[in-house]
Design a protein that fits this description.
Mean pLDDT: 91
Oligomer: single chain
Number of helices: 8
Helix content: over 70%
Distance between the termini: 19 Å
Order of helices and strands: HHHHHHHH
């Protein structure tokens, strides 16, 4: 493979991944609207409630993990990252990271309003949360912020093992945030899955934009 093709391959994979995850998100939303996922969602909701009842400490752990995907936490992480990028004069990357977080939050709000899915019964949840359910905002935005920043940090490392570890850690954070939302019963499991799909698509598009700006 020529150097030119090797340079474009990651961008092609990012673009393809973003489109694939975006299509998965929309397909899952369609299945939810048709009621095809209800049995699975109810099963996971009941399992989470039984787990919390059997092991009360799990509720505290899930609540703490959920905080990693809160608006305040992700806003602080994004501001800190953009501040560092600004200090290092990486103006374009800082702008793209900020735009990814802001536009991602707007997209989540619009999709929530569009699908208008009701949350699980508050009596079955660990905490009471208002608003529409699909997609999970915590899951979506955790994937957007952590995966985007993880990919940017990984790009600065040379060794493959370091890159894999950094991306794995970022992915684990996003995964745990989503699991916590379903485990606490504040979201259906498919809300979380859709949130991950949307967040991964948004993060892939952001990294694609960063690579394009670098070129």
């Amino acid at each position: 493979m020529t150097p030119g093709r090797r340079a474009w391959l990651p961008m092609a994979l990012l673009a393809g991944g973003a489109l694939l995850m975006g299509a998965l998100f929309l397909h899952l939303g369609s299945e939810i609207a048709e009621g095809e996922t209800r049995r699975f969602d109810v099963f996971v909701l009941d399992a989470g409630r039984a787990l919390r009842a059997a092991h009360p400490w799990i509720a505290d752990v899930m609540r703490d993990l959920s905080g990693l995907g809160s608006s305040v936490t992700l806003a602080l992480v994004t501001l800190a990252a953009c501040g560092y990028l600004a200090v290092t004069r990486s103006w374009a990357t800082a702008a793209i990271v900020a735009a990814a977080a802001v536009s991602g939050a707007v997209a989540v709000a619009l999709f929530k309003a569009g699908f208008a899915r009701a949350r699980p019964d508050s009596q079955l949840a660990q905490i009471v949360v208002d608003g529409a359910s699909y997609p999970s905002g915590h899951s979506s935005m955790a994937a957007v912020v952590y995966l985007t920043l993880g990919a940017l940090i990984a790009r600065m490392r040379e060794r493959r093992v370091e890159k894999v570890y950094i991306l794995g850690a970022a992915g684990t954070l996003a995964f745990l945030v989503g699991v916590s939302r379903a485990a606490m019963g504040v979201h259906w499991a498919t809300d979380v899955a859709g949130g991950w799909a949307l967040g991964i698509a948004w993060a892939a598009a952001c990294i694609f934009a960063v690579r394009w700006a670098d070129r």
